[in-house]
Amino acid sequence: MLLEVTGLSKVFGGVTAIDDLDIAVGEGEIVSIIGPNGAGKTTLFNLMTGMILADGGKILFDGRDIVGMRPSQILHLGIARTFQNVRLFPEMSVRENVMLARHCRTKSGVLRSILRLPSFRKEEEETKKRAEEALGFFGKRLVGYRFDQPAASLSYANRRRLEIARAMASDPRILLLDEPTAGMNPRETKELTELVGKIREEKSITIVMIEHDMQVVRGVSDRVIVLDYGRKIAEGSYAEIAGNERVIEAYLGTKATT
Amino acid sequence: MTELLAARQVKLGDAIKTGLVAGIVAIFVSAIGMVQRFDSRIIFSSVTFSYVLLIGIFAGSGYQAARPPLRLEGYEAPKAGVRNVLAGLLAGTAGGILLALFILVAGTANLRPIFPNISPELVEILAFGRELGLGATLAALAAAVLGLLGGALQLVPQRLKKAIGGTFLWIVLFALLRGVLAPVTRGLGITSLTDLLYERQGLSIAGLVAVAVVVFSSYFFLAGRVRAARGGLERLPENRRRIVVLAGLAVVTLFLGAIPQVVGVFLSEVLSAAGIFLLMALGLNIVVGFAGLLDLGYVAFFAVGAYTTAVLTSPISPRFTPELTFWAALPFVILTAAIAGIMVGTPVLRMRGDYLAIVTLGFGEIARLLFLSDWLEPTFGAARGIRRVPDIALGPIVMKGPQDYYYAILLFVLLAAYVSWALQESRIGRAWMAMREDESVAEAMGVNIVAAKLWAFVIGAIIASFGGALFATRIGSVFPQTFSVVVSVTILVLVIVGGLASIPGVMLGALALVALPELLREFEQFRFLIYGALLIFMMLKRPEGLIPSRRRTRELHEEEVEQDAWLKAEAAKQEAN
Amino acid sequence: MAETVEAKAPRRIQLPVLDSFLWLIRLAAIFAVVWGAYFSLSSGRLSGAQWKDLVIFGLSQGSVYALIALGYTMVYGVLRFINFAHGEVFMSGAMVAFFVARGLSRTAMWTDQVFLSLFLVMLASAATSTVIAVALERIAYRPLRGKPRLIPFITAIGASFFLQYAIAGLFGFGFKSFPQVPALSGSFFFAGFRVLKTQSVVIVAAVLMMIGLYLFVERTRTGKAMRAVAEDQEIARLMGINVDRTISIVFAVGGAMAGAAGFLYLLVFQQVFFLTGFIPGIKAFTAAVVGGIGNIPGAMIGGLLLGGIESIGPSLVLTGLGIPSAHQLKDVVAFLALVMILIFKPSGVLGERVAEDRA
Lengths: 258, 577, 359
Hints:
The complex is a heterotrimer.
Chain A: E1 3-12, E2 15-25, E3 30-34, H1 41-48, E4 56-61, E5 64-65, H2 71-77, E6 79-81, H3 94-101, H4 110-115, H5 118-136, H6 156-169, E7 174-178, H7 186-203, E8 206-210, H8 214-220, E9 223-228, E10 231-236, H9 238-242, H10 245-257
Parallel strand pairs in A: 3-8, 3-9, 6-7, 7-8
Antiparallel strand pairs in A: 1-2, 1-4, 4-5, 9-10
Chain B: H1 12-31, H2 34-38, E1 42-44, E2 47-48, H3 49-65, H4 82-108, H5 120-126, H6 132-153, H7 158-176, H8 178-188, H9 191-197, H10 205-222, H11 225-235, H12 238-290, H13 299-313, H14 326-345, H15 353-372, H16 377-380, E3 393-394, E4 397-398, H17 401-424, H18 427-437, H19 439-444, H20 449-475, H21 485-498, H22 503-519, H23 521-524, H24 527-541, H25 550-553, H26 556-576
Antiparallel strand pairs in B: 1-2, 3-4
Helix pairs in contact in B: 1-3, 1-4, 3-4, 3-6, 4-6, 7-10, 8-9, 8-12, 12-17, 12-20, 12-21, 12-22, 13-14, 13-15, 13-20, 14-20, 17-20, 18-20, 21-22, 21-24
Chain C: H1 2-8, H2 16-43, H3 48-79, H4 86-105, H5 109-112, H6 114-141, H7 150-171, E1 176-177, E2 187-190, E3 193-196, H8 197-219, H9 221-231, H10 233-238, H11 243-269, E4 271-272, H12 278-291, H13 296-318, H14 330-344
Antiparallel strand pairs in C: 1-4, 2-3
Helix pairs in contact in C: 2-13, 3-8, 3-11, 3-12, 3-13, 4-6, 4-7, 4-11, 4-12, 6-11, 8-9, 8-11, 9-11, 12-13, 12-14, 13-14
């Protein structure tokens, strides 16, 4: 197993967000995580990327416990993510946004940058090339004149794409996508669904994805994990999940109260 | 096509409000002594700088009051007409009446015990030297006419408007900067030019006309061409553009190198003083502009650099006297500055922006108070400071006098500018920018926040310490009183007014805000008042600064043009295939 | 639900090196305080009565800090914004108080109707500061509401400098000495402490005003509106509260307190000039943080605490450490207190009362 979560828990001021959770993701899988609002999906991503600290349990990545590591260290090991509410660096250009993600794969320090040594130039060229490559993954949407536009000027869908490109540029082994299709129209959604498959095929990156759109979930997932109140209530193929009574109850239950 | 509603009109009530605000501003600048202080500087004939100030206020109020309202969807585009001119007139009149009342009050009651600057001389200036009632009436009339003229300016096409405003500004600037121009023409051996332009005081008629014609025509005919030229440069292929840029830099460097020989001792002195501030502004720009860490105690690093240099080089430094040369002391200066940077940077690593600002402010004050204290007197000499800091020597050449120091300072400024540029376009520069925009995402994207913040503090500290070292040797002594919080704020103002993260902007800001008050002594007293007002104004109206950094300039329509061009090119390519 | 909760949760960065470094500072500070206090007290350089004088002096300057701190804390509670120019609001009040007092001191009223004339002086001071605080908010801060935190903060720095030099330009750069108040000269003994009469006036007035303010915020409709706006501006607006007006009132009340403090400051320190607001302003901010920013009783306790630390600290700790002329370093002690509290307990002794940032 590439990623193994055991007994993970997190409490926020009395509210249990993640409750003794066990999850495993194998190399090359596409796993969808679904669940009603407040089920703890994003919290799980935050825990896995070290942005918040777990209260208990282990997160083994490639056999190594990453609980307590800094987010930058975890990215270096190979877990990259996107955010539910798209968090780019709005004033940096599209290309710079992606180049930044190469930070952990490059090593030019202050002195080398000031002296502009050949090794620095080479690395900078390489970074630029890799960034443009990652952007090229989305066809023509983010290339050409767009390279130098500030990220803030992009359309919503393009921002989502840019965020994925940024995560991919860090050469992750596993990519955590937090609602990648939120706010997209059906055509864009379909395109993105295909893209997720393509990322796995071409880059052999394992993907864990939080998703609300069941079309997307059905379209790409090898396996679906259902969370509710921070616990795993079901797991299996899309077909298995769709018929699971507890899952239906969890969704209907929230629907009834909202 | 739907029927458009009639264009919204200027509201005359608002015009009166604008006028009253202008009146209050005019009274304020009179009451704080600005008008009287500026009266000794003659612009042209009997027009003094204080009249220019008042003309600007009232004409500006008319212009502002007459500004057509924003165009809204569904309305016809507003057009300036008689009503706008009337608004200008109303604003001028309202302001003028306020000022006239002030003149009457100030002329009859003795307000001096409370407001020392409301003096008979002030009243005389405001009343054009006439008797009180007539003078007040004249002032009100003048303000009304100015408001009218300001309002009328709204009727003029945009390009002409800019040319008129620009001409007015440049005439004033030329008249003020006689002290700069005179030594330059002398240095170049063309004193006849200054003789032509200036009378004994202020511009001559020939000068006035010449400046007006040159400035007006260049505004009018060059409008838009500069920008086009820059656009042309950007379209050049990478390698040729680099050649052009390098050639430009070489010319600029030569020019900078020639300056002290041409302008003489006094101006070199002014430029050196401004240069030290510029150096520190470049350093603070890295901390605040690049990394987004608002450091209000930046003066501490300046002090550390100055004191380290003084202690290590002065033959009468109280505790130890290694009597190193400037250059031998420099590595120690860098080292202590780096340590100071880490010491200030470490405790604030986890603090939010505003708390960080207050804590660094605290550190700055602590540094000053420690240098001033009896406790550390055996090392730093407390209030007596450390004197006899030797001049910089390069082998047998000893730098003496401002013209030599100019070169030393220029060297460090160029170094700092280069370092800023090199770091901005690098891995660490991107990390800083990302951190400035969203710290937690930057960290999630692999940036080591601790290292990035500490590097910003350390590099900023080292650059400031260079400023301190140069300051100590240039003045020849260090005193703790120099290192007060106003230095930190001054540097912050330079960085913000020029444009955060924009290197040319910071340079221009330093020259305008430090060199100008040095040249025009009458500004000195109002320097911090103006700085404060500028900070407020910049934040309200132009938070990106006068010369914004490259990434903040792109205007939307420019982008669209680019976008269209690119799409067309792509389509053509596809067709070719 | 969980998504919103976690945005509020403090993100802990794990940095063993940094943490151990901070622990080292903490231990060193505690050690220095204990060591210095032990030596000062055992040397017996100051008598019991002198220590008591320091305590009373600390309390009186602390009450001034507390009154100024209220303005910082209320504004921060509502807008999460440090009104850097608040010290100048305080100074302007003191400056006008001086001129009113000078005028009154030339009349018979100054000696015949002592308390009425002092009250008038205080009223003038409070009114000036209120007007300036409200105008500042209206002109400089309101257009920037909702902008990134540092933008209004930089504006406030500008406003601070502008006010300093505007006051200097209007009233002159020199020191202004408050006229003597004959009825308030001398001292009396209270519970074994020697208290100057002015000090007693300062402490009593400050305490009364703080109680009044506390009741105002807790009991009145306007006070409730303030708390609602502090909690969530959008929801307060939906509930029919006029948010702009409420924020103006917050600035007005904070300004009035600062103006009153300006008058009391004159009673204690006797003089004022255009830079008078700067250092007390920073100290009052420190007091607000010490008490827990956004927390009104906290500001009062923080002010008194800081006044005490600053008054007693140098003699108690620094002298004991063998530092000569320790009183020179009283500002250093105050600034160190600020740095330490922000590093180690930014939520203050009574806890912050600031609604969490919403993303």
